[in-house]
Structure formats: structure tokens, C-alpha cells
């Protein structure tokens, strides 16, 4: 069991013939992901060979879904074309769209998110600027390395790609049900709260790791949700404890306003909700070890 991405998921890649798209399609196939095709309007009707596995290229997401039964799209499209690619996926009503692209203009993210809401929210968007989603031993949609950890009973949701990998590695002897990298941009599709709700409802997830970072109030809102709705143990980490006050960090969402959005404020909110918060990734992993043991 996993959330949103399972062994039965049929994955297409928007931008399958591009450099990043083809490289990571090869990786996903090697991980056992059921990749069934991809899209590139200029190369529709052709096939791409991945070490002996030939995948068809379609003109549109709708066509790919009709021909293959795909229910997941991973989007490797340059920033200028990402908005159009996501809207195409929304119009096709694909259940899950994973937007890997970094550098998507914030107004474009706002536009396709609003479009999705207006269309009834039939497509779950993860990202943009995210590493994707991995259910170890089942499927891998994005750029998360597939060999970090085996299947297990910890769920992970994270704003940071690198910290996703580190926590998966440090807790590899326990394993993960699903790891979701939601991205650190100011406007993203799937939130901490969405993932927390799904992990709470997943019978094969016993505990949850939540990784946030300075800036914004997403973690404070997640703390309120945990307090009211989550009965499973949650361990947290906030990136940016040592960041200089007022410093804008690498992720566009990590902008602190006054005392709001600081690591200490987020830590206090989470701890008030019963979440154990580590000061470092390794301490966070140790806290989770205590929970799982």
C-alpha cells in the first residue's frame, strides 16, 4: 500500500524525448515504474528506445491516456512551457501530475493551480520544483533515487529534495511507504496537509516524517491540522535554524517576514501539536527511530 502512486500506476512523461525527460524515464524504468509512453507534439507517432524497451510518443496527454490507460504524468518541460503542459494534463483529467520543472514563474503556477480548481480539481498536482513521489518497491515518478531505501511503514513529506533523500537514507533500515517531495516554491499544488491526511488514512503507514523550511506559514498550518486530525506519530525537521535573520534562502518560498516563518516559530507550533522536532536531519532520524522502536 502507498499513497497516490502504486505498483499499478501507469506513468507517462511529458517531455519524454528531451534531455532530462529521457534520462529520468530510463531511471524510472530501471526502478520498476510502469512507464507506458510520453508526449512531444513534434514527435508524435514515433517510438523511443530505452535499453530495449520501446515507448510510444503521443501528441497530447489525452491521446496518451486513451491509448495506454495512463493515470500519472511526470512533467519534464522547460519553464516557459510548463504552464501549457500542466493545463494540458488538467484538461485531460489525469489523476496525478508531477511537475519536476524548476524555475516556473510564480504567476504561471498560480494560473494553472487556479485553472485546476476551476475545473473541479480532478488532477492532483505535485510541485513544481520538486523531486516527485516514490513508493519504494512499487513505483517511482520523478527524480528521487530508487535505491536509497526499501519498502517500509514510514511516510515522508518534504519541501526539500535533498533532505528527502537524506532522511530516506538515514531511516533505510525501517523503509518507507511513500515519500512525497512537494517542492519549495511559494505556490505549489499538493501541501503538507494533503500528504498528512493521506498518510493518516493509509493503513500501511505507521508514522510520518514532515520536513519544512523557514518562510511562509505552511508548517504552522500543518501543525494545526496535525493537532486536530492526525493520530499517528509525526516527527519533524525545519531547514534553516542557522539562517541569518532576513536572509532569502535558495527556495523561493523561504522568505521570512518578521518573526513569522522562522525555524523557531515553526518548531514551537509543531511541538505544541505533539510533533517531535529535530534540530538536525540526523537528530530527526533518531527521533523517528525511537518512535518506530
UniProtKB/TrEMBL annotation:
Where, by residue number, does CoA bind? 17-20, 43, 100-102
Active site: residue positions: 251
Domain (CoA-binding): residue spans on this chain: 4-104
Cellular component GO terms, alphabetical: cytosol; succinate-CoA ligase complex (ADP-forming)
Chain sites annotated for binding substrate: 165
Claim: Repeat is one of the keywords in the record: no
* Catalytic activity entry: succinate + ATP + CoA = succinyl-CoA + ADP + phosphate; GTP + succinate + CoA = succinyl-CoA + GDP + phosphate
Q: Kindly tell me the pathway this chain contributes to.
A: Carbohydrate metabolism; tricarboxylic acid cycle; succinate from succinyl-CoA (ligase route): step 1/1
* Top-level taxonomic group: Bacteria
What the entry lists under InterPro entries is as follows: Cit_synth/succinyl-CoA_lig_AS, Citrt_syn/SCS-alpha_CS, CoA-bd, CoA_lig_alpha, NAD(P)-bd_dom_sf, SUCC_ACL_C, Succinyl-CoA_synth-like
Write out the entry's keywords from A to Z: Ligase, Nucleotide-binding, Tricarboxylic acid cycle
Cross-referenced SUPFAM superfamilies? NAD(P)-binding Rossmann-fold domains, Succinyl-CoA synthetase domains
Q: What is its EC number?
A: 6.2.1.5
- NCBIfam families reported in the protein's UniProt record: PRK05678.1 (NF004230), sucCoAalpha (TIGR01019)
* Classification via HAMAP family: Succ_CoA_alpha
Instruction: Give the quaternary structure.
Output: Heterotetramer of two alpha and two beta subunits.
Instruction: Give the family, as the similarity comment puts it.
Output: Belongs to the succinate/malate CoA ligase alpha subunit family.
Functional description taken from the UniProt entry: Succinyl-CoA synthetase functions in the citric acid cycle (TCA), coupling the hydrolysis of succinyl-CoA to the synthesis of either ATP or GTP and thus represents the only step of substrate-level phosphorylation in the TCA. The alpha subunit of the enzyme binds the substrates coenzyme A and phosphate, while succinate binding and nucleotide specificity is provided by the beta subunit.
- Its name, as the record gives it, is Succinate--CoA ligase [ADP-forming] subunit alpha
The lineage is: Bacteria, Bacillati, Actinomycetota, Actinomycetes, Micromonosporales
